[in-house]
């Protein structure tokens, strides 16, 4: 992956984000393959300051939005549009723990091969049982039972999310421990199943 500028291409001052210089108010040219963490000036780390992320997103949006470049030269207009797309994609991915974990894992895994379909022992059978129960509840219109299932699944979903920070922190201290990355992948797979069931319940 191409390295990104840490100083402004126009004035030379340090950049908070490689997309824009707040010192001279100039858009920056970046490579198409820049990752979401680099867009927000963050290291490849799961734990981030949500308030700082939100603040930087708002500041960059106010400076780079294409509406402010309507009368600008075509090159600047295109750069504003491209940068805004990158900014929105980075922000929407990094602000939520689950999407952040899902995005960060392959960046850390690099060439390591992970079992992308692995699930905790007994989990799949348990999900099949939940699915059958959900079918019956939807058919009978048992709202009380649906609410109880929704609460149970949400608690499990929250519990899985709460484990991400500890697992990523363990990997930071033991970066050669491939098993930690696999545990993360397995938890992400389980969360995906839970989210499907929750989405189905909440769509009814």
Q: What is the makeup of the main sheet?
A: 2 strands, antiparallel
Number of strands: 2
Element order, helices and strands?
Answer: EEHHHHHHH
Rough shape? globular
Beta-strand content estimate: under 5%
Low-confidence stretches: none
Strand line-up of the largest beta sheet: 1-2
Rg of Cα set: 21 Å
The rounded distance between the terminal residues' Cα atoms is 44 Å
- Tell me the structural class: mainly alpha
Average pLDDT, all residues: 93
The share of residues in helices is 55-70%
Total number of helices: 7
List keywords for this structure.
single chain, 204 residues, mainly alpha, two-stranded antiparallel ribbon, 63% helix, globular
Tell me what you see in this structure:
The protein is an all-alpha fold and 204 residues long. The protein is 63% helix and 2% strand. The protein has helices at residues 36-39, 50-64, 74-94, 97-109, 123-140, 143-173, 178-203, and strands spanning 20-21, 26-27. The protein has a two-stranded antiparallel sheet with strand order 1-2. Strand 1 and strand 2 form a beta hairpin. The mean pLDDT is 93.
What topology does this entry show?
Elements: E1 20-21, E2 26-27, H1 36-39, H2 50-64, H3 74-94, H4 97-109, H5 123-140, H6 143-173, H7 178-203
Antiparallel strand pairs: 1-2
Helix pairs in contact: 2-3, 4-7, 5-6, 5-7, 6-7
